[in-house]
Specification:
The chain is built from eight helices and four strands; from the N terminus they run H-H-H-E-E-H-H-H-E-E-H-H. It is of the alpha+beta class. The chain has one domain: Up-down Bundle (Outer membrane efflux proteins (OEP)), CATH 1.20.1600.10. Helix 1 runs antiparallel to helix 4. The longest helix is centred in the N-terminal third of the chain and has 68 residues.
Amino acid sequence: MKKTYEYKGVKHMKKVYLGFLLPFSLYSQSLNELIQDATKNRLIDSSQKSIESIQKEYESVKSSYLPKLTVGATYSNTNEETAAVADSSITSYANINYTLYDGGAKDAKYKLYESSIKSGDENLKSLKNQIALDIINYYFNYQSLISQKEAKLKEIETLEAQRLRLERFLEAGTTTKDEVDKIISRVQIANVILHEIELNIQTILHNLEYITSKKVTISSGSTIKDFTNNTQEIRNDIKALEYDIQTIQQQARVTQSANYPTISLDNTYSDYDQSYDNKAYDNGLKDQNIFKVNLTWKLFDFGATKNSYESVYKKYQAQKSRYEYEKNKSEVDLKLAFKSYDIAKLKISSAQSGLKAANSTYEMIEKKYQNGLVDNVAYLEALSEKYNAQSALETALYDLEIKKANIIYHSGKNLQEYIK
């Protein structure tokens, strides 16, 4: 009874697996759809909001350099009036102030924010492309695992059929129990591997659900276009570093502007309503307009500005070194991606030859096994090699798609444009 239960369990598991796949095949997502969902997640939204925040801050800075109009009023009352101070008075005023020159800080701040916004845009594009590359890796690894699972199920099915055959022979006394036990052992090992494959499949699905923030089902058929254009563009993350360097340069200019004079214009119009008990004090002043040109120049600050500038300049040097390092690394990554692609093509050729050889070997040994010319050890080895060779070829084909995506990514291209 126990052996019959194991066999039915395998058959039941296969039916459940096929039944599980059938309904989702109607609603499953292509690679392009998965990437579109992934690029709408909370991480992308957070990056977009950060860029919008800098843009609003930039608008605020530009507004702060426009002329400022201030109005106000003052009421005063004194217990002892004089010629200069009325018994009670109301003074209202309007003031306009505008900075003509601030040592170059305004222009530097504008450029600082512009480069910071451009850096944010490039980082956002880089993030989307990196997520797309991650999705591509998950997608084709998932397809590879599905093919491994299907091959393992077929292997188990074949093993179970042979087990039943040997059990009948055992009952007839034409084989030994150890032959049956070997088959059962192989079935158990294959089932363990099958569960490991299933765990890896579920892990990929959970990771995709985490990235896309929604339930994921995956369809097959998506591929990556062959990359024929050998022109390399600067990756978005490298462009972002370029803009970061420019941002720090402008920050240094803002700091250095403190060494230069500031010139501003100021115009104040005041209206006076004064009430004197002693009319002899009344000077008849009703309104007044004062126009000023102000110049301030900080001549000495104990080296505060100098040290602040040198601090920012050190940041500039550090960022420039990082940029050069990352740029060189990206060029090496592209070269390695091309080499990996060439190796992946060789693996496909090797896997095709391996599958052909494994199929031939299996067919030959199966016939000998059926005729009792070889033992079941040789047969089981040939069977495993056959299905392992099938899985190896499928894995090599899907791995080639991943290698194409790596070339496109390191070439600075938009991955979504190469998905079909």
